[in-house]
Amino acid sequence: MILSLQQESKFSAALSKRFENEGVHAFLENFEAVAQKHERRRQKIKKDEEIENEKLPSEYRNTFNVKPQRITSNEYELLYIETLYTIKHKIGTTTSRYIQGENDLYAYAQEAFGLSNGDHQRLLEKANEEKPPILILLVEIVEAKDLEAKDANGFSDPYCMLGIVPERRHFLTSQHSNGGGGLSSDEEGANANTLHDNKLGFMKRLKSFRKSTYRRGQGREKTILTTGSSLQYHSSLRDKLPAKYIQTTDVKTATLNPVWMEKFRFHLESGKTETFHLDIWDHDDEFSVFEAAKKLNQVQGFKGLNRYFKQVAQSARTNYLHESSHVDDFLGSVNLKINEIPSTGIDKWFSLEGRSENSKVRGQIHIRANLTTREDRGISEEDNWTDIKEHVELLQIFIDHELKKFKGETTQWTGELSRDAETILHQHAIQGGITDIQQSMCRWIAYSKKHSEHILAHKLLLSVTEQLEQTWKPTSLSRDESDVLREAFTLFINHGFKQLAKIRELFPATNKTSMERLEQLLTILMKLHSMEVFRHCCPFQNSLQHEITSIIKTGTIEWFNRLATQITKPRLRSDEDILRNTSELVYIMIADAHLCIKYYNPIFDSTVKMSFYNISFKKIDEKLMDIVIKALEEELGEQVHQCPSTFLEIKEPDSADVLAFSAAAEQISLCLFELYLSLHELSKYKIYVNETDRVNLKITQYYMYFGAAVKKWLSLARNKILHRIERSVENDKYEAALTSTHNVKFTPSSLDVSSCFSQISQFWRRLAWPDIITSIAYLIKITEDMANATCLYAMLVEGKLNARKLYETNDLSYYTQELSLVVNDIERIRDSFKTLPIELSYDKLLVAAEKFHSIAVVDEYRKKIETTVAICSHEIIDKIYQILNKIVTKMEIELKQHIVHIIDTPEHILLQDTIQPLITYLDTRLLPFKDFLIRQNFTRLLELVWSILIDQFLLEIEKTSKPRTTSSHARLVKALDSFVDYFNTDEQCLPKEALKTDKYKLIKKLLKYYSTDTYSLIKLYYQEKLQEQERIGVINQTLHLADLGKLYCRAYYHLKEETLYVEIISCKNLKPCDSNGLSDPFVEIQLCPKFLYPHIEKQQTSIVKKTLNPSFNEKFEFRLTEKECTLSGGFIHFIVMDHDLMWSNDFEGEAFLEISKLPGIPHDSTNDCRPLDELKKIELSLTHPKAVRSRIIEILEQRLSDKTAIEFVRQRREAENQ
């Protein structure tokens, strides 16, 4: 893994020449500077958003070149004349909402039209010359309720007779002019017999109609008119109401709450003294007032109507008193003075009145009535199209005038007109018969047209739109009106669409007021498209979503093209400028994406149920990535379109070639990195695009175009770091650290190289490569490169140390700090590298890779990374130990002498006095290193010292030439414990786990054995053999190793019979001992150690010929007392032998079974007394006596005067030699 010395020398020479006058920190810091610049750009987006939000709303103007259509000067004067005419002939009672004085209205009209006094007077005279209009009363009989029941069935058959009662004085004059009675004798005689007798009821009803009309006036007149001629005169007045003033409704049968909903139209002569009168009757006879009145309505012309009416009235008078006549019952009446009707009309319930003050009637009737006019110009009464057009023009003039007077922006105007304007418009509407829907239509047309000129508040337009929707009903507009309204709709919608096409300029997202305007515009557009009147007028209009989608696409493309042309337009510039400008364009798109998602999207979603960003970003994505790819192609050529993984397979050039590349392309690399970061940031916004569209976005694969760039970045970073390592080590000045007043533990080189690793980690995090598989390959490459850098640093530092030849001096105390700095630096770099994969988040990356690869493949990646780290780390640790070991080597001789002194010191000398010289020596030599070494290196130094002490201690103990007493061994144990305490103090801080090595444990065991008697040692020996047997069984099973075979048996102690039962079942996989590849096995069973069971004889099974898997199934009994079974250290010893007739038997293997743990032993909690056949089969692994060195045997061999020991050793040696 580490670079060879030759390679590093070549690299060093090239770097020295290349970077002789260049700062070594430039490259990696520049990469981080680019990343920080990117982060500042991200933060600036939010900051700019807050600043823009605090600004006043921008005043956007009409930029669509819409020229308003103006009327000609002649039409303008005619419209003014019409306005003056309207003011002069005001109708109806003026309410508090409107202005009453004509002069104020004239003044306002003159001001609004902008005319001089002379023009005003001239046009006013023309208006006065016009004929006065014909006054008309429009009445709608809606319904009645709670009428009196007149029929036997408890209901009535009500109908209404209604008419206009003329001015009384004028009526009397007209009657006298007709000859007193009102009918000539010729007319009466000619028509006397033309009607049938059943019509007599008509005059009676007509008479009641007259009485009801004049009942209030008669009360006073009756006291004055006393002569018969007077009474006859008034009777004649009541009988002679002109027929043209009478109309009737339909009859509603069997109801007390009739609903008519019938409309009537009456022409009035003056409107000042006339009265509207209505009677309600219950229809009874076959031909009554109802039928007569209907025929009256069928007569054409006023003269014929009067003649017919007179004939019916005369016939009715002659039969007035016939009792057999059928009559209609009177239900009530209503009177309404014409001059009391307000200009806004009447819509109310009236209580019914009786014929006289004593009459009792009940019930109410709902009547709607309003006044209008008709000019006598030969135009049909139903044709008010001219009035509607005039009303629209008048509205526009008044709107312009109000806007001129308004002090502020037009978007702040509420749209409220002055009372003067409202009064004129109201009079013009009622005089021209303009209905509510027509007025709403005129308001919409006028305000929507003015919006295209002045940009009115959308809230105002929404209010006008809602008013139009509320008043419209199917068939309420004529074809011409629908066409004009459609034209107004189209004009407004097109204007709104043009605004949406420039949404980013006209509705800046960060401005609260602009967002309110946008929301109101979309709300209006949505409202229009959802209105029935819009669908009626514009049946072929595309859906709003379709139109807005097309507009957003077109507007986004135009906006993007303007920006792209402005930022990336061709001019003389370097490759760096091309990349920087492209990055700038991407950052603008990031800011736009942020604003679209935060501001535009919620508004479009809540109003028109659309995602603005989804539509806009798809268009931006295609255009932007084309520009990005073109910029990358100019720099990287066809490599842009190659898969990133292919670059990892390309062999890298050597150091010099890479340096030549870096000299020419370092700035380009930084520009590429900036572009990559900007695209990476923009790609995050793709989650706001619909999933179905997201997969087709080019931005999703933005990283695929940077494979060659990443390869260059990593190569540059690697070589820059290698260069920095060499220069840093070269510039290290140990003298500065030695003369420092502070306790310096690291040189600048280690800090510098550690910073390199941190910057590599930071670079990787900034890169955030999206592709998991390629990321793992990059991560492996980074890990290997940094491993090489780590090893290079350690090698250079050690080489620099070796060049000083410090080890040739006998006393290293003078170089304590310098040596400490070296190992500390190496350890610091090792630690930085060891944590590098963690900082690179390799574990998370590998977990994510499991979605694309099998666990086995992912484990291979993991193993490769961790192996690289482990090998490098071990190499560095070995190098540290090598340096520290050279320090310890200088102490080795003196350390060994101190150990020999401690062991050989007589027992009468105090132990503390014996070990104190060694403690003092260690303090003198180690404490200086503690001040300069980091803790981990000081621990390593202590471990090396401890290793020398333990090795020497063990060596001295194992010497057999100097037999020692039991007390001397106990003394050595205490000395060893004192050493442990010394190295484990707070000052030394060596953990006990590190102190208690295998050799330490062996020493403790040997000292224990030396101080133990022979019998106990023999028991310990068998205990060790049992542990060895269990350990070998586990190892062979785990690693599937070949062994000596298995023995299967059962064992059980019968307490009452005081008998130990043993059954030998079989053996398996024995080793072949005969030439035929088989064996003739048998098993010997004995209890040991012998001194515990001296009376028990050895037993054996029968011999099974020619097999390696013999089956015995033989049972054996051993007479043992309860006490003998519970003795500690008792074992059943199984020996498997191969029988041989000619020679001695061959040894197959042995096994041990502890007696105290067998079933049936009294201390067993179960006291299991099951038969032997039901006991569980026991598997024992066969072992060989010499498989493991036995320290107990070696110690017993030294006890020459102990016969038991000598005999036991002899038996075990014989077994070992078999």
UniProtKB/TrEMBL annotation:
Keyword Signal in the entry? The reply is: no
The molecule here is called BAI1-associated protein 3
Alphabetized Gene3D superfamilies for the sequence:
1.10.357.50, C2 domain (2.60.40.150)
Entry-linked PANTHER family: UNC-13-4A, ISOFORM B
Write out the GO cellular component annotations: late endosome; secretory vesicle
Q: What does the similarity note say?
A: Belongs to the unc-13 family.
Which SMART domains does this entry report, sorted A to Z?
C2
Instruction: Please give the organism.
Output: Rotaria sordida
Where located? Answer: Cytoplasm; Late endosome
Q: Which SUPFAM superfamilies match?
A: C2 domain (Calcium/lipid-binding domain, CaLB) (SSF49562)
Would you say which domain of life the source belongs to? Eukaryota
Point out the coiled-coil segments of this chain: 28-55
Key words, A-Z: Coiled coil, Cytoplasm, Endosome, Exocytosis
User: Which segments constitute the C2 domain?
Assistant: 116-320, 1038-1168
- Which terms does the UniProt entry file under GO BP? exocytosis
Q: Where is the MHD2 domain?
A: 912-1021
Main location, first listed in the record: cytoplasm
The MHD1 domain sits at 673-797
